[in-house]
Amino acid sequence: MSDTAEKAEALRQRVRAFIQTKVPAHYIERTRGGLGLGKQEQEHWHSLLDSEGWLVNHWPQEWGGPGWSPWERYVFDYETAVGNAPRILPFGVSMLAPVILKFGSQQQKERWLPRIRSGADWWCQGYSEPGAGSDLASLKTTAVRDGDHYVVNGQKTWTTLGQHANMMFCLVRTHASAKAQEGISFLLIDMDTPGIEVRPLYLLNGEHEVNEVFLQDVRVPVENLVGEENKGWDCAKYLLTYERTGIAGVGICISLFNRLRAVAAKAQRNGRPLIEDMLFRQKLARVWMDIANLKETNLRILMKAARDGVPGAESSILKILGTEIRQELFSLLRQAAGSRALTLYGAEAQDLDACPTELLTASENYFNHRKLSIFGGSNEVQKNILSKFVLGL
Ligand SMILES: Cc1cc2nc3c(=O)[nH]c(=O)nc-3n(C[C@H](O)[C@H](O)[C@H](O)COP(=O)(O)OP(=O)(O)OC[C@H]3O[C@@H](n4cnc5c(N)ncnc54)[C@H](O)[C@@H]3O)c2cc1C
């Protein structure tokens, strides 16, 4: 076995032991049911990972990264997902941090990176606006220079977990340039600044997961500008490739598939286990082949990223495949749950012990995960990116 493979194998064993001995059982149970953690639990989860040296696992070693190869990172993501450990919240650790590492000043690195790692700040992403989603470059929130501050006015929307955040990385218009992409800047905004109001939005499953953020005459110190003024589009695009690569979730797909298979083995249809139903078996086989393809593609793209330094436009392939497969798995899980998926809907379900979490949350997850093909750039838009930058059409 090569040195790299040996290291990855040793890590695999450490991660499995960690999940068995150190991760609280209810974190695993919630994740298995497709549910997130509360704010304090999420912070605790990050601190548990950090104490193993695994939280900022793709950062350079000088900033606390473990110096893993892409293969070790893959093993870590895979084992934590298959073991139903909670996910790492991406906003600070794997979305903002790469931008600061590439575009930030030394001062910004020293200030923000340790705070991301320690959990001192909870970050949210202020990109989308009511009139700027897929066409992000048409964003209208303005930042006007006033001495050593910018004065920000506008509205952001779909801000995930913004209700918990004390900081937001935000795209703002600093110049009414002829070309939309050229007048945008990347600002770090303290959510406690006067003039900011966060209002909840409720998703299809009734969850308060996203928000609207209103900004009125919000004063942001100029030192919170990352990169050059009017060059924020470079930061924005760079961040999005990381966001999309992270959405693929091979391990999550396999974990979901295992749950689905277990549920289908127990559920009865016409007096026989559902898993013996020919039509259902075909659907299972189909989705399993898709997962196998996703796994290979993910590895190929990871290896290329290891060579080139950053994930490229190919991250759009992972985004499309990973999200379509997860949506199909949630759909099949809901079918397998049958009529129980109709009656046991979220908070209405009282008797948690009487029913496995994956059935209890089958409908909730089905509805909630419609979001996967929309956020991080919709799947249709990813196809445009692929046709232009990969196929050269
Ligand atoms: C649950 C959830 C969480 C989110 N979290 C965040 C967050 O934390 N921060 C943040 O900034 N944003 C967030 N978003 C916003 C997300 O990035 C946008 O919803 C997404 O970019 C799509 O934009 P839109 O909703 O304005 O839809 P639109 O851009 O209006 O698109 C509507 C439809 O038209 C299609 N379409 C649009 N343009 C094209 C085109 N050129 N070619 C083909 N089809 C096209 C789209 O695919 C879509 O089906 C979140 C969204 C959701 C649903």
Order of helices and strands: HHHHHHEEEEEEEEHHEEHHHHHH
What's the count of strands?
10
Number of helices: 14
**What small molecules accompany the polymer chains?**
flavin-adenine dinucleotide
Helix/strand-derived category reads alpha+beta
Major sheet description = 4 strands, mixed
Range of helix content? 40-55%
What's the gyration radius in Å? 22 Å
* Portion in beta strands: 15-25%
Strand order of the largest sheet: 1-4-5-8
What is the general shape? globular
Q: Please give the alpha-carbon distance between the first and last residues.
A: 42 Å
Mean pLDDT: 90
Unreliable segments of 5+ consecutive residues: 344-353
Per-chain topology:
Blueprint: H1 3-22, H2 25-32, H3 39-52, H4 70-82, H5 90-103, H6 106-118, E1 123-126, E2 142-146, E3 149-157, E4 167-173, E5 184-190, E6 196-202, E7 208-221, E8 225-226, H7 232-247, H8 250-266, E9 268-269, E10 272-273, H9 278-308, H10 315-337, H11 340-343, H12 357-360, H13 362-368, H14 379-390
This protein binds flavin-adenine dinucleotide (FAD).
Flavin-adenine dinucleotide (FAD) is lined by residues 125-128, 133-134, 158-160, 210, 371, 374-375, 377-378, 380-381, 384.
In short:
The protein is α+β, with helices and mostly antiparallel strands and 393 residues long. The protein has helices at 3-22, 25-32, 39-52, 70-82, 90-103, 106-118, 232-247, 250-266, 278-308, 315-337, 340-343, 357-360, 362-368, 379-390, and strands at residues 123-126, 142-146, 149-157, 167-173, 184-190, 196-202, 208-221, 225-226, 268-269, 272-273.
